[in-house]
Amino acid sequence: MITAADNKTIVVVGAGPAGLTAAYTLLQQKGYHVVVVEECPQVGGIAKTLNHNGNLMDIGGHRFFTKVDEVNDFWNKIMPIQGKPSSDDIALGTAKEFAAGGPDPQESDRVMLVRNRVSRILYSQHFFDYPVSLSISTLRSMGLLNTIKVGVGYLCAMLRHREEKSLEDFYINRFGKPLYNMFFENYTQKVWGVHPSNIGADWGRQRVKGLSIVAIFKDILSRTFVPRSKRHVETSLIDRFTYPKYGPGQLWEYLADDIKSLGGEIRLNCCVQEINISDGNAVKSVVVRNEDGSLQTIDCDYLLSSMPLRDLFNGIKGIQVPDNVLHAAQGLPYRDFITVGVLVNRLKFVNKTKIKTYGNRIPDTWLYIQEPHVKVGRLQLFNNWSPYLVKDNENTMWIGMEYFCTEGDTMWNTPDDKFITMAADELVKIGAIESVDDVLDSTVYKIKKAYPAYFGTYGQLDEVRGFLDGITNLYCIGRNGQHRYNNMDHSMLTAMRAADAIIEGRDGRDMVWSVNTEQEYHESK
Length: 525
Prior knowledge:
This protein is an alpha/beta fold and 525 residues long. The chain folds into four domains: 9-43 and 251-332 and 454-513, 3-Layer(bba) Sandwich (FAD/NAD(P)-binding domain); 63-117 and 238-246, no CATH class; 128-236, protoporphyrinogen ix oxidase, domain 3; 334-452, Alpha-Beta Complex (Polyamine Oxidase, Chain A, domain 2). It has helices spanning 17-27, 69-78, 136-159, 167-175, 177-183, 185-192, 202-207, 213-225, 248-261, 309-315, 323-330, 382-385, 410-413, 416-429, 461-468, 478-482, 488-504, 509-513; strands spanning 9-13, 33-37, 49-52, 55-58, 112-116, 119-123, 126-130, 240-244, 265-267, 271-277, 283-289, 295-299, 302-305, 316-317, 334-344, 366-369, 378-381, 397-405, 439-452, 474-476. Strand 6 and strand 7 (126-130) form a beta hairpin. The protein is globular, with a radius of gyration of 23 Å.
């Protein structure tokens, strides 16, 4: 039963997908005063869109795909889907790419495009499908000897199933050791900074739990014999997704405007300093530092937090935090993220696929770089996400070079000019460009705590959750709010579940924490 809001004040920490979704959902019910506090100057969290000299950057790449109807409906309400591609062509940059049935993207800005997913692995100067496929091109690129090794390795894994104590065990059980060594081991260490044998298997169960050689075979048969509308597709194997015309941040900026029009507040450049807990184990107020530097206390009836758990505990006042809980919270690890935007006239890579592209460019949205002699983890080809991200789509390629690091390490502390020089040199090393002189423009952007990590004190997360659940009006939502490597749709769903619980006057924290733990939902990379 829905309860009366009674002018309750709700503070939402973070203006990313989770925080904005929570605020908008709550404001659909009259009587709530919602204040969203965001420490950055821009909404969207890691799903923001950045503008560098007219070229737009999507930080990390955000495919809009979900099996959750209410999330899909939410996206479509904010930005309508344009329609379906007329063919398997990608990034042609003209109206011919788009079929009738929705707004014309050349006439409308508030529109979601339907994109074809193409991601591949660059390994030993060869391209391999990602997710890993068993196509003729894959087998040809591996060569006869490696193909035999992969087959034998997979059979051995089936006969001797490992106890899944680590992410390494998880991958070997599903692909065999040779394929794991080729396509997962080095890249995983780049991403997390530790070997897969030291990462919990939970990461694999959550992010790639539906992906395996068996799933690949099923997908091949499904694509051959089952109509698209009737297929059950593992999320890791999706071949289409929707995408805002001007990048993911466009949708969140529109949503922020809608929140303001409903009476909600969004305070940018505003940091949480203290979270004051009453004797009754409830949040009674939040102290924030506003953009002008002034401190302000905001009394609240509920707090929805998408801030990192480590930061949340640093702000808690008025309640004794047990030593074991504080140790676990402060020991939760994160991986930070650096994107180098690089503008070039063209890439040397040759399009040998059957996909038609503008200027015969390679069709990939991402290239996973498995070459051990470079530090770059992925290349994001912005032209192929949306031609509208690129100021001159016809004559230039706009690339995001993605690096994974830890705040304060050597990579993080490298000056931007030196980092750009290193990145350009790595493009030469992997055969993407001829010379560093091919770079026309570049920029560097750093994101803190982009990826909650599954090592360190992660195994004690239940102790942290148990303590937080004792604070009666606190809901932890989103990726960092739960220290869970959720995709965007699941981060939004945690916010929806929290908002629903508040509106309905019940304790729904079990529902919030259970998002993306059900085994039937197959999450993507």
